[in-house]
Amino acid sequence: MNEAMEKSEILSWLRETNSRRLQTLWHHADEIRRRHVGNAVHLRGLVEISSHCVRQCAYCGLHVGNAELTRYRMEAAEIVDAAHQAVAFGYGTVVMQAGEDYGLKADWLSAIIQQIKRETPLAITLSLGERTDAELQEWRAAGADRYLLRFETSNSALFDRIHPPLGNRPCDRLALLRRLRELGYEVGSGVMAGIPGQTYESLANDILLFRELDLDMIGIGPFVPHPATPLGQNSPDFPYAGEDQVPNTELSVYKAVALTRIVRPDANIPATTALATINQKNGRELGLQRGANVVMPNLTPLQYRQLYQIYPGKACVTETGEACNTCLSGRILRIGRHIGSGPGGRGTHANAQENICHA
Ligand code: SF4
Questions:
Q1: Residue 316 confidence class, pLDDT cut points 50, 70, 90
Q2: pLDDT by residue (tens digit) across 161-176?
Q3: In the chain, is it the N or the C terminus that has fewer CB atoms within a 10 Å radius of its CB?
Q4: Dihedral over Cα of 154, 14, 263, 217: its sign
Q5: Å from CA of 58 to ligand 1 middle
Q6: Nearest CA, atom 2, ligand 1
Q7: What whole-number distance in Å separates Cα of residue 151 and Cα of residue 198?
Q8: 100 lines ligand 1 (CB under 6 A)
Q9: Cβ atoms of 1 and 9 closer than 8 Å
Q10: Burial 225-243 (b: 16+ CB within 10 A, else e)
């Protein structure tokens, strides 16, 4: 098993059910992770800055048609406070995430990015949906370092079904990812495992696309149905793929994470909150032991956190930032890993080995 893994081998691992053989996959992915990105686990403080969204994604609780949801947009001072909290906890990155909210004005966010850059050593990651080229350029110039935009599935027909276009605007996330790279961002993307209609072959293609796009960050979570969405209501518009259907289980995610580590050895790969949601006991730890090297503790103020309901039952919605920090640090240390310090960008293996935070 190596970086050049063929599609047929990826497919065969995705279909594998023998737990003894799967141990080989876990072991191999963990060894590649150790060799290429070290034993450090990087903590990215997540701030969910707005739950407004103009899109109608069929899987997401924030979709514009969900009238049940109370929407919020954080104040600038609250976001900057959260960034300072990230520094106090020793995190190297703050991630500002939101729905596709055009109420987040470009110059307003630029001022926040500049203030955080002035006052902290943090790397800044944005995850704000399909924004205009001018906005992406402005935020990069203001100091944003990274941008996350999941392509969710490489099957374009399935993607168009679950992510309807916005009016006449073209929606080409792969082109956007390439553009983000041109603008000088470190670029992250990812997919869901187990979307109704997603076949094993489609997930194998996703993993090959991670390699082709040479992504810096790759997030993989399970599809978790939300009752206020078409996909959560078993709509006949979203049929399952019979025996080719990828199940939306933690096992599917572990396999995809492990295979992704093998084909993209130096990428930053999070053990996602969605994984921790379907296995609250040790989903994150298993993710970290099967290829992942990043976790994203939540720094969103508690009064907003419960409102950011992309999917139900989300892990860590009732814990304070402090509680999340203590809990995650403990989980990382208990599996024999250490906490990375500094921004933890791509290719920081040497730093990962040296900058050990004993807090
Ligand atoms: S996935 Fe993102 S763009 Fe789609 S509805 Fe949810 S928040 Fe909006």
A1: confident
A2: 999 988 878 788 999 9
A3: C
A4: positive
A5: 9
A6: 99
A7: 13
A8: yes
A9: yes
A10: bbebbbbbeeeeebebbee
The whole-number pLDDT of residue 14 equals 98
Q: What is the pLDDT of residue 349?
A: 56
DSSP state, residue 59: T
The ligand 1 atom at the shortest distance from the C-alpha of residue 60 is 6
108, containing H or E segment? helix 106-119
* Sign, CA torsion 296/50/228/245: negative
Q: How confident is the model at residue 93 (pLDDT cuts 50, 70, 90)?
A: very high
Residue 190 in contact with ligand 1 by CB distance below 6 A: no
CA of 257 relative to ligand 1 center, distance in Å? 23
272 contact partners, CB below 8 Å, separation of at least 6: 219, 220, 221, 253, 287, 296
pLDDT of residue 347: 58
Exposed, middle or buried by CB within 10 Å (0-12, 13-18, 19+), for 23? exposed
Nearest atom within ligand 1 for CA of residue 129: 3
Asked whether 188 and 219 are in contact (CB, 8 A), the reply is: yes
Higher per-residue confidence, 352 vs 288: 288
Q: Which helix (H) or strand (E) holds 50?
A: strand 40-50
Torsion angles phi and psi, residue 231, rounded to 5: -70, -25
Beta bridge partners of 123: 93
Amino acid at 78: E
Q: Residues 183-242: pLDDT tens digits?
A: 999 999 999 999 999 999 999 999 999 999 999 999 999 999 999 999 999 888 899 999
Measured between alpha carbons, how far is 1 from 323 in angstroms, rounded to an integer? 39
User: Tell me, what's the pLDDT at 319?
Assistant: 83
Q: What are phi and psi of 222, to 5 degrees?
A: -80, 150
Mean pLDDT of 3-29: 96
Q: Which residues are CB-neighbours of 204 under 8 A, at least 6 positions away? A: 7, 10, 11, 14
Q: What is the pLDDT of residue 123?
A: 96
